[in-house]
Every structure is written in C-alpha cells, then in structure tokens.
Amino acid sequence: MLKKESVSDLTLTEIRAFNATIQQGNFTRAADLLGVSQPAVTAQIRKIEGRFDVPLLERTSKGVRATDLGQRLYKITRQYVDLDASVQSLINPAGDERSLEIHIATASPLVFMPLMAAFRQQYPEATLKITSGTTDECREHVLARDVDIGLFPLPKPGAGLSHLTFHAHQLVAILHPEHPLAADENVSVHDLIHESLIFSRRASFTQQMVDAAFAGEGLAPSSNILMNVRSDICEAVAQGLGVGFALSHDIRLDPSYSAVPIKEAGQEVLEHLVWLKSRTHLPEIQLFVSMALEMRSRQFGQSSER
C-alpha cells in the first residue's frame, strides 16, 4: 500500500494537513484550523496520498472521510501532534501565554469549573477548548489525543494514563422537597424501588452507579422517564415527575429539590485529571496539572484548619 517512502518520510506540514482534514471532515475547515488557504491544504493532501497505492480519503457531498487505510494512518499521525507541540514550545516558550492552547474533555463541568476559571485567571491570553461528554467519551478523547486533559471519574486508570485525584463526592437521590424522605440523612434503594424513577443514559457513569446500587440489593428498577442533562433532571424532580440521581457536586444546591445520599452507594467517587503519560512533557499539561495541585493543596490546608 505504501510506496517506496515510509511513514517517517512524511513532513510535519503534510501530517498537520492530513490530521486537520480528518478531524474537520472538510478541506475548508481544515484550512481555517491551520490558518492557511484551502489550496495549501489540498496540495499537502495530494502529496501524502501520492505516497500510497490506495486512497486515504473518500470524497463525499458533505466533505471527506477517511478510508480504512486513512484511519490506520491517522492512528499513527495523530501521535505526531505531540512532536509538533514540543517543537512549538521551543519556538514559543511556555512563558508566552498567548501560545497556550489546551483542549479539555469533562464529564463533571461543575466540579472542575473553578479549576478552569483559576487557570483562565492565571493565563488570560490562553485558549481553552472545552468539550462535555460521558466519562467513557472523555476517556476515549484522551486516548485518541483529541484532547490534552480529561476531567472525569477514573475507577480503573489503565496503562498509559497518568492521573491526579482532584475531588470526591457521592451518589445522591434527587427528591422533591415535600417528599417524605427528603429530610432524611440517607435513603435506601429499597425505599426507592417503587418510586417513579428518572434515569439518565445507560452510558453515563452516574447511571452505571445507580444500576449497581440496585443490583447489589437484588433489585431491578425500571423507568419511564429518561433524560440526559443533569439540570433537566433536577427541574423534572422539582416539577414532581419523580426521583432523579446525580453525583452530589454535579448539581447545584437549590431549594426546589433535595439531594440525599444513597445508603448502598457509600463509597466516594473520585474525580481525576487524566492525561497520557507520553504527553506529560507538554507545557499546557504541566501548567494545568500544576494549577490543580495548587488548588488541591489550598483546599487541604483549609480543611485542616477547621
């Protein structure tokens, strides 16, 4: 499939153009991302495709998409992003905050928003690109190098990942303030099994915890109300649609509902910063992790003084 040259013969200019085209699915958007003209991008794509005997990209009415070979090549070339970033960090030292751009995927925006705000305050010229998703989606973004850092619960770190524990909270039931259990210190899943339950999508970490809490007691709950947005679940509870679930600090305190810990889910959930070990040297990751360490140290010091 590959002609005489090897992948190592590809230039960074070709790789940047190829990666941007795969990510954007369109030559024009790829050019905008790179800050060059569309003809410059298509010229680099022609050069890289000329090294192979079969197509890397399939042209469609909506743009382009990678062929099987193109996807296989992208798994290799996306790793060159780290090399590119390392070169850029030498050209533009970390002290020049205008060169800082950090891509973040988070499953717990309320938990990590103070950290992102602190980073923004420290580096006001830096660019933060933030994506929200489920825990599994955020983890995949980190592994695929689509983002620099993930912010989400990490029950099983896995090989190749570095992580820093940042926050702890617990699974709670969201109850209407007039519910008989709303003022209790905690609530059992046995008390909730016959309630009208509001579930979130099965792929979410929170829903998996809910399912595990019921299953651990031999219970199989059902729900006729499925919602994906935490704030919508809270509003549904406030309007009397049923009982919802969330991790305690993923929702805001509000008098229109009560958050009561679930007895069978007593173990705290740890929220982490997660990044690839191979990318630890990148300035944006080092600065963001350092900021998290500072915040965590201050929080620990404040709790010790109480």
UniProtKB/TrEMBL annotation:
Determine the domain of life of the protein's source: Bacteria
User: What sequence ranges are listed for the domain HTH lysR-type?
Assistant: 10-67
| Alphabetical list of Gene3D superfamilies matching this protein | 3.40.190.290, Winged helix-like DNA-binding domain superfamily/Winged helix DNA-binding domain (1.10.10.10)
DNA-binding recorded as keyword: yes
Q: Keyword Transcription on this protein? A: yes
Q: Which CDD domains match?
A: PBP2_LTTR_substrate
- A Pfam family annotated for this UniProt entry: HTH_1
Q: Which UniProt keywords apply?
A: DNA-binding, Transcription, Transcription regulation
Query: Which cellular components does GO assign to this protein?
Result: cytosol
Q: Which GO terms describe its molecular function?
A: DNA binding; DNA-binding transcription factor activity
Q: Which PANTHER family does UniProt cross-reference here?
A: HTH-TYPE TRANSCRIPTIONAL REGULATOR YBHD, NITROGEN ASSIMILATION TRANSCRIPTIONAL ACTIVATOR-RELATED
Tell me the protein family, please.
Belongs to the LysR transcriptional regulatory family.
Listed name of the protein: LysR family transcriptional regulator
Q: Which organism is it from?
A: Marinobacterium mangrovicola
